[in-house]
Every structure is written in C-alpha cells, then in structure tokens.
Fold these 4 entries.
Entry 1:
Amino acid sequence: MEKSSTAQKYQWGVGHDLDNSRYLRPPMIPFSPPRIDDRTVKAVEEVLRSGWITTGPRTKEFERRLAAYIGVDRVLALNSWTNACELVLRWYGIGPGDEVILPAYTYCATANIVMHVGAKPVLVDVLDDFTIDPEAVRKAMTNRTKCIIPVDVGGLPARVNDLMRIAEEATVLFTPKVNLRVAGSNPQMRLGRALVLSDAAHSFGATIAGQPTGRQADITGYSFHAVKNLTTAEGGALAFNLPAPFNADELYAWFNTMSLHGQSKDALAKTQPGAWRYDVEFPGYKCNMTDLQAAIGLVELERYDAETLPRRAAICARYDAAFRDDDRFVLPTMQADDRQGCHHLYMLRVAHATEAQRDAIITAIAKRSVSVNVHFIPLPMLSYYKGLGYRIEDHPNTYAQYSREISLPVYFDLSDEQVDQVVAAVKAAVSEVLGA
C-alpha cells in the first residue's frame, strides 16, 4: 500500500494555500474508526462475486458461530440492535398500559423501542459504574411491569443476575395478558413474570461470573454498529436463553419469520428445488442481516479473542497508568464483583468538573487534534423525553456521572504513541479549563 501524501496526512484549517505550512495541523486522532483491512475487503469481495448478497449462507454461519461463542442454542442475526429488540417487545405482547423499566443513562434507542410499541418507559437511576441500580428496579416494579432492560455500558455488564432474581421475586405482581396469542402461544402466561431483555450493545465478549453475556438474561440484544468492538457495519443479534417450556428453535423460527415480513421462507430456503412457494403468517417487519454484513462479522469474530480484545485491554491499561495517580480524574470501572468488561469505551471522568467545564474541556481537547465523545446524554435531558415529563433531577447519580464524563479513543489501530498524545491532550485541556 502506498504511503499517504503530505496533503492526505494533514487536515486543513483556515485557507487552502498548499505553500503555506502555517495552515497545516497534525491529523486528528479519530474516536473509533472500524478495523477494515485486506482480510475484510477480500471477504466482502468474495460475497459480491458469489452472487449472493442478501441473507444467505454467510449469515447462517455467522449465527452458528455467534451461538457457539456465547454458549446458547440459537442466535438470530438482524440489521440492528434496535429492530432486534423491538421485535422482542412485540413478541412478548408489550403495548399500551404496560411499563418497561430501564436506566435513565442509556442511548435513546433503549427507550424509543418502548415508545414504538405504545408502552411506558420507567426510568431509574444508575450506580457509579454507569449500570442500572438493581434496588431502584426493585422499587419501580408494579403489576404493569412487563419487561426490565438492563444496559451494559462501556463494555461493563449490568448486574443481570441480580435483576433476574428481582424479576423472579416479583412474580406475585405480574399480571399477564390472558388474551395474548403470539405464534400460537401466550409467552407472558408461559413465563409468568417480567421479561429480562439485556441491552448488551456494548458488551459482546464481556463476562458475568465467567460466562459470556447472553447466558444470563432471557433474551440478549447485541449491536454490531460501526463503532462497536465487533462490527458488521450495521447489524445486531438476539441470543435466546429463555427457560423451559420455551424452545430455542421455535423462537428462532418465529423471530426469523417476523424479520422477513412474516414470510414463511427466507430467500435461501426458497432456492431449494421446487421450494418457491411461501406463505405470510402475520404482518411482520423487514430487518434481516445480509451476507455482506455477515462476511465482515465472520472476519471480526475469528480474530476477536486473539487480537481485538487484547489490544483494547492494552489501550485501556495504558490510559489507567497515565491517569491513575492524578486526582483530577476518576477512572472507569472495567471490572466489578463478578463482571468483567470487554473494554468497549474508556469513560474517563473529570473529578470536580461541572457540565459546562466538561464541555469546555472537550473543546480544548479537539483543538489539540484529538476526537473524544460523551456516553450518553441522559434520556430526561433529551427534548422528547423532557417533554413527556421526565426530569433529570429524579436521577441524581445519572447526572453526576454524565456531567463529568469524557469517552477517549479506543480502537484496534490506535498506537501507543497516539494513546500518549490523547493523554497529553486531555491533561493539557483540563489544566487550561480548570487551572489545575
């Protein structure tokens, strides 16, 4: 591969005079670009040349390998976490009059899917590690609670096992819909309690008590968006872990059909001799994964444990070493009790900064050619949810963590030298804004 030209190596500020070097500045260290190399390009090229680019053999292979990695019987690959998990809410019959408990500190998708089905998001506060507070969930349970959505943040799993116990203990409160029929059954009557749907968009490869995420909650949703540890460009998946009498194969078949407009056969099944005829069993949705996406995912999965996770862990360890002895900063929690994170984000907090100061620090970091981010703006601070009456004042720890959080770059190709540049930029920016 040819080396980049000088013009490619630098980003331009004011003006475009190629002979005036004062307009040149060092290239911006990006926040989280995907790992796209020759293996990835070749895998996608092979799919393009195969003539099969929609859901097909590679998607099915990706599902099998995901299931083996997680340790569950079935995984269904779909086009996003959002559509995957909305299908779960619809399968469980959640709708108007129902409540779904979730943290105030999460991306809007977690609450948006609840709104899509006409139910009410019940927001609760989080712990200092950014994950949902189980005791707050316990207090929020009512006879209208149909689902709990714990959210794994920055790669650290939520206390899902605690939440499963809380759901079991609250069966006396649970009021199932007696007239609900989904795929010939009533899942609410069969489970007899609130469904625990884990939002593991950040935590593929993380573990709880030594077991991969996906083996604790009833159903777990993953995201393979471009910025995730494992990407398929866009994409998501569901891992099924429901107890008996639920059957993983039956669940897979229903969700697969639901993701294809309710059509009884997918495109691959229809290629068999004489198998063109299909039926539509219910008005479903369109959110299947394609073989183009799965090809990227298969490359990513093959090198995930050997290359991706170790490099991300090393980057975070280098950040830890740089910030640990500086009392201006609060380090992120990468491991807590029996939960081991997968180093998806490095969520640094500036110990005594106000929200306005944090924002000024981010601007000062950007001037030093480093891209950073914030995860997330809490739901009650977003115009839509604020307009519905949600108040950030009701979630003090959510605000306390958000207002001083800055997510630093973490990605496979980030070099140690660049990590040191990030550290220097952050410390200089904090000194500039706080005078410390």
Entry 2:
Amino acid sequence: MKSYRRELWFDIPKRRGFVNITNTLQDCVRESGIKEGLLLCNAMHITASVFINDDESGLHHDFEVWLEKLAPEKPYSQYKHNGFEDNADAHLKRTIMGREVVVAITNGKLDLGPWEQVFYGEFDGMRKKRVLVKIIGE
C-alpha cells in the first residue's frame, strides 16, 4: 500500500468564505500515483471546515445566512468563549459544517457524485490556516 501526504494553506482575506478545492484534491490524487484507495482531507484548525456540497453561489449564500442564524457572530458578549477572542461563533459553525471528508479514489480519480464538490470553509479568517490531504491505496 502507498501513502501520500500534502498540506494546503489558505489565507482568506475576510472573516468567512468558501473555496472549491476539488481540482486541487484531484491534482493530489494524480501526484500520488494511487489509482484505488481513499483520500482524507481535513481542516487542521478548529474554526475551519472541509465539506462536500454543490458549487452554486445561491447555496453558498444560503449557507452563510443559515449559519449566521444558528450561531450569530455578534454580539460577541453572548458567548462565554469570547473572553480573549471573538470567534466562538466560528467554532460552532465549524462543528455544524464538519471537520473532514473521505472520498473514494477509483481509476485514479475522485469518485464523487454528479454535483459533488469539495470545499474549504473558513469561519474566522484573515490568517493562514492549514488543511491536510492524506491518500492511501494502491
């Protein structure tokens, strides 16, 4: 069995944002040389997410509105966590959107459904954050 590891770095210039990383992950699969296996992709920061969904701008807007209703950024005073930071909402949003995805690799390609894309989700941006890509297989 072969193994491949790569780190992706993101520095989102706003507090929140979504980045489609599907093509980057497919490049990792190609670089790994693995034809059959599994790809794990996970955010290495507690206020960021990796998830699978549709790449549609209206849906991304809906995520933003929905997440803000569930865990509003302000007022900062509503959260006990916000004694030294102002990012309690980002921790909650990450929990909702998830930490990682696992995608099957078949014939050297990500085995995704017809509309599925992989995204990095940022909920407390304006600083560098890391995502791990780990691929195992043959």
Entry 3:
Amino acid sequence: MKLIPTILCGGAGSRLWPVSRESHPKPFMRLADGQSLLQKAFLRGAALAHAAEVVTVTNRELFFKTKDDYREVNASDLPTSFILEPFGRNTAPAIAAAALQVARVHGNEAVMLVLAADHLIADQAAFADAVRQAMTLAQAGKLVTFGIKPDAPETGYGYIQADGNRVVRFVEKPPLDKAIAYLESGDYFWNSGMFCFTAGTVLRELAAHSAEVLAATRQCFEHSCTAEGDSVSQLEMDSGSFAAVPDISIDYAIMEKSANVAVVPCKIGWSDIGSWSAVGDLSAPDASGNRVQGEAELHDAANCYIQSNDRMVGVVGLNNVIVIDTPDAVLVADRSRAQDVKHIYAGLKAKGHESYKLHRTVHRPWGTYTVLEEGAGFKIKRIEVKPGASLSLQMHHHRSEHWIVVSGMAKVVNGDMELMVNKNESTYIPAGHKHRLENPGVIDLIMIEVQSGDYLGEDDIVRFADIYGRVAPKAASSN
C-alpha cells in the first residue's frame, strides 16, 4: 500500500499581513520554534506509515522557496515532487492535477492524503490514527474528509453533519446561533479541508460531477513540461491551457455532490491559524493575559499579542490589542477584529502598494536581497548569493548599478568583460549593459548594490539567460 501526502501550498494569507504577503505567504511564516507551517505540514505527512513520496502543488514563483524549506527538514530524503501552477485555480484543479500525476507514477490504487500547507496539528499520534481510519475508507472507494470535533461555536468554519462515518450534509459558515446549536448537538464537525482517497476514486468522481475540470486539467497536464532530479521531480503546468481550467474548490466540485463521501471525526489539535488572534493563542499568556514574541515593554496592558523580532515595542494602557512589527510595516488591531486585517491587505493591493506583495527582504532562487534605503534617484540593497548560485544574465534600461563585495568572491559578467571581484573591491554596471552576478565560492557572497537612475522599479529588467528557467519573452519582474 502506498500513501502519497499531497500538500496544497497557495493563497495569500491576507489576514496575517504584514508577515504574510503575496510573495511570502502564510505557509512560509516561521513560528516560535523556528519551523514554518509548510515544514510542519511536510513533516506531518512524511512521518506517516506507508508514505512513499510527498507531492506539493504550488505556484511557480514559490517553487524554490518551497524546495529550500523542505531541504531543511527532509532528513530521510523522502522523494518529493512538485506540480507548479502559473497562477491560482483553487483546490479542485490542484487536486485533479495531483491525482493525474499520482496515478501515472504510482497507479490508481495509491492513496492520496491531501493536506493544507498552512494548518497546525498538535497531536501527531491522533492524526496518524485518523489517517489510518481514512485510508481504510479510501481503499473501499470512499472520498474521505476529516471532521474536527468543535470545542467552541465557531462561525468562521464550514461544518459537516455526520452519522458515524456517513456524511449527512455539508453546511456553510453559520451564524452564531446555529453554531451554538451545532456544538450542542454533538453530530456536527468543523470541515478541516483535509481529504483522503485513492487517485482512481477522485478521478472517477471528477469525471462524474465536474467533467469540465478534469478535462481541462488533463489537457493542461498533457501539454506540461517535466523535469527530473535526485529524488525530486517537477511538473510545470502549461500556462496557456491552464487559463482554461475552471476556478472551483474541491468541495463544490465533488464533495458536496457525491453520494460516496465519508468523514473521520477526530480530535487532533487542529487549527487553520487563520488570524493573529489564533497565532497569539499558540503561546502561553502572562499574568495579565499578554503574549509576546520578540522584545516588548508593556505597562498597564492586558490581553495583548505583541510580535516584534527586530525592534523594541512599547505598549501603554491598551487592552485586547494586536501589534505586529516588521521592518517595513506595522499592524495595530483590536484583537476581537483580527479577521478584518484582510481589508488592510486588500486596500494596499488595490493601491498597488508594494507592501502587500514584498517584504523588505525578498527571497530569490539564488539567495536574498534587502532594500536598505531608497530615495529620489537611488536605491541601496544588500545582496546575498548562495554558493554556486547565479543571478540571470540581464540588462536594465533606466538604471546603473555599483556593486561592492563585502564578503566572499563574485564572478561578474559586465558587458564584454568577465572578471573576479574580491572582498573590498567593486565594479560599475552602466545602464544598457548585459551583466550577471555569480558566486563561485563555498561561502555566501555578500555585496552592497547602489542603484541610480530615473526609474528604479523591479520591472526594469530584461533577462537573456537564467539557470532557474525564468527567461520570458517580455520583461520579468524581479532580480
């Protein structure tokens, strides 16, 4: 028997702004123990009996970040594969693509365990037991979902009414009075968004209830490119045909339509970490009900959650408040309205403000860059390039760049020249020159980049060659 944990890693996590942003969404948030939610999801699936491979469906732009997260925790070198979407199309197409891949590699009888990348489960033993029950039902041809025993009348979750393992009905997010009645009845469970079924079963159910989703995904799948490496494979979904795939959730596509659905009621310490209030609840409060991650000085404050990893935060005379401090943005919110943070994210996105999308430190396949300072006509960055990594061969129309090596050694293409730049040395890249930066050494290359010009936007970049497959016919949008 093969179990294939299948992790869906997408979404913006808008309710957890300013830590979660479009290019660094919620699954990559690090908790107090240093692990990201994505890493915890990987370890959760990889630790299960019969796990043969971990499949991850994610956005093309998040591939390298996801692979780096896995590399930190995959001590057993469990095979991993990635299905890379050019843009989001909800959970039904993601699961359909994963099922097609699993069926092709492992056969129709392989059991898929679909996990969200941004949930937290505290009780691994109880989770493993629930998965064993789900696998038995899945092998009997069922579409299985996991129902979480509620401990409060939660209005932010969908519910499942169950009679044993039989699903009676799915219920949308209820008003408070109904949520109280559901809690008291004992036969309603939170819909966790986790699923278990064989690849063959979910493909048959898609064909029966959402044939257009399966047909469009299969068409895209057949036009997609595959690359293989050491214990890692990737399937990059064709962007042209992927645009024709319907945008629909797996719940609407098949779970609410099929008569072949089962539920495993469980109590596994589950949370979807859907707000800063939920994040705060992960740590123990002090005598005044305050929870602090990082440095803070509080006076006459109660029931607050403060997170600040880079600066000291002072709080005076506040109650039930959330303060989240990052290098380029600060959130202050009433804790009872933590769900409304998504409106701040939406407002910033509507204005085109960069802080909805990027942090001051931006991760790239080759390393990171941090904007240290910027003003009219200039921008200063700290660039860190991993050993053996290389930026693309590129050119800028509107800006020139001055590179100063702080640590390590740089191999530089500058126009027609190729040169080595050592520590405390520099080179100048005029606008219009093709150039490339590479780290040929065994330690991180750290350098300071000073940009100058009339336009310094990240979209002023034309790529000619790139070892990470990011060359496009038109201008790209990052270093």
Entry 4:
Amino acid sequence: MSEHFFESRPHPWHGLEIGPEAPHTVCAYIEMTPNDTVKYEIDKKTGYLSLDRPLRASSQLPSLYGFIPQTYCGDGVAKLMEGSEIGDGDPLDICVFSERPISRAEILIKARVIGGIPMLDDGEADDKIIAVVEKDAIWGDITDIAEFSDILVERVRHYFLTYKLVPGKENRVVIGEAYGKAHAEAVILASIQDYNEKYKK
C-alpha cells in the first residue's frame, strides 16, 4: 500500500499537507467558486463543506476561494497586520485565479502565491492570500501581485468589503491595500507557526 494512500477521508484542514514548496507554492482547498451566491465554509468538526449563509450582496467572487491546510490565524498573523487585536481563529484564506473556468468546489489546487489583501473583520486579522493556478496558461509565470491585473485585485477587495453588509448596520470590515509576494509569504509562515503552536504541541 502506498504511504500516501488514505483509507478514510482526511480532514481538509488538519489532514491535508500544505505542500513541500510552501510558502512559495501551496496546496489550496477550495470551498467556493465564482458562481456561488451563498457562503460555503468547512465545518471544523467534521471536515465537510457546509452552508454558512446566503449572501445578501449582489457581487460575486472573482476567483476560487478556500484555505491553506495546516495554517491558523493566531497571534503571529495578527502581529503582521496593523490595527488587528487577534487572528480570526480560522485557517488562512486564499483566493486562487484560473484562466480556465473551474466550477467545482472541494478540490485541491497547487497555487503559486503572488500577494495578498489585509482584511480586518471586527478587529480580527483575516488576510486573503492571492495566488494563481500553477502552470496557468495566462498567469502561470506571474511572480508578484505587481504584475497582476489591478481590476481583479480591486474586485477581490470590493467583494470582501461588501459580502457581510447588512442594511442599517455598521460595516465592521476594513480592507487595506494589496501587498506583494514577500509579505504574503511572511503571513503564510506566521500562520504555519500559529498552527503548530495550537495543534502540534
């Protein structure tokens, strides 16, 4: 039997590996696609995808969206974001761009990290790492977000700024300017350390 064979389904957060080339290239577990108009999220106990909530806003994701396995947004991640009090206690989020449409969730993608977007959600650090599909025909050679499409980055910022909006209530989400690959890799390394300190003691 192969040593890489799982007899049962591994938990996507804890049972999958981030990949040997992290933080430059990582394994991304996809929870949502650009076609989704409801918020799907991994159930932390079972590892199955669950419906979190219908989305009120009309904007849709411009990319695939999920998380990086065996990462955790804790104190180390929070220290890298100005104004944050704590990390949000979830795995590190990642937005992955593909030139070819991908309509299925619950898939694994080898993603090349190019940057990220700082997001404060009610004072909690909730970074969104930006990546492209490895060997993508259009974006596969991009190494930093400075080489990427400004409008696509702006669409990511707009989506996360508005996706929790509720009429008549204050928006508690603050989105900063995009950062490059070097800082994104620092955030990933901090999230790995946060994960190890919480779950691998």
